[in-house]
Design goal:
8 helices, 4-stranded antiparallel beta sheet, alpha/beta, 5-stranded parallel beta sheet, 2 domains, Rossmann fold, elongated, Arc Repressor Mutant, subunit A
Length: 225
């Protein structure tokens, strides 16, 4: 699924784009209203209202007049009148900043489901050799045997296993699994990693990269007898 992010602030746009890629989407970025109004093959548009050239409300109106693509307004404007006006202009949803990445991903999937099937849905199964992770049912199995995980343990494992061999920083994991504005103790992550390793019974699958974060190493498929 292809998502167009319309956001002029790089400190917001960059982590947002990275989070969407980690969630399985392909992304494009427009930093101005004029760029957002260019023809696009996006399946969903995330639209910030505070653009430098055209007010986001006008951009929303013009996008809707030209296309039926789902539009989610992402803005710091929390006024009810703004929300009502934008929904009446054709926006499909409205998310107030700051927001959590998991909530945003859920909203993207919800509006695109309502709009109809898309040709490229994010993968719902992570096949990592002996380890299988079903993102739809949130079930984890090792060689066919189900492993019971807490919601946070599941989210950490899914994030790491979706990109085996890649080092994920502690900050990125906390930002994605907990919240983009997480300010709690980072020791929380170590506790969850330790529990996850114990439940998987293969601690070597989640490697600690000292001073940086963690990396997932794909387990081999267990040979059948």
């Amino acid at each position: 699924m292809h998502v167009l992010v319309v956001e002029d602030d790089p400190t917001i746009a960059d982590p947002l784009l990275a989070g969407l890629v980690r969630a399985g989407f392909t992304v494009a970025h427009a930093a101005t209203g004029h760029a957002a109004l260019e023809p696009t093959d996006a399946d969903c548009i995330l639209l910030d209202l505070g653009l430098p050239d055209i007010d986001g409300i006008d951009v929303c109106r013009r996008l809707r007049a030209a296309s039926a693509v789902p539009i989610i307004v992402v803005s710091a404007r929390a006024d009810e009148l703004d929300r009502v006006m934008l929904l009446e202009l054709g926006a499909d949803d409205y998310v107030v900043k700051p927001f959590g990445m998991r909530e945003l991903v859920a909203r993207i999937r919800a509006v695109t489901r309502r709009a109809g099937p898309t040709p490229e849905e994010p993968a719902e199964l992570i096949d990592a050799g002996a380890l299988q992770i079903d993102l739809r049912t949130r079930r984890v199995t090792i060689n066919g045997t189900e492993v019971e995980l807490t919601p946070k343990e599941f989210d950490i494992l899914a994030l790491l296993a979706a990109d085996p061999g890649t080092v994920h920083t502690r900050h990125r994991i906390l930002e994605t699994v907990w919240d983009a504005h997480w300010y709690g103790p980072t020791k929380t992550l170590d506790v969850h990693i330790a529990s996850l390793r114990r439940k998987l019974r293969h601690p070597e699958w989640i490697e600690t990269v000292r001073g940086i974060g963690f990396r997932f190493e794909s387990p081999p498929v267990q040979p059948t007898e």
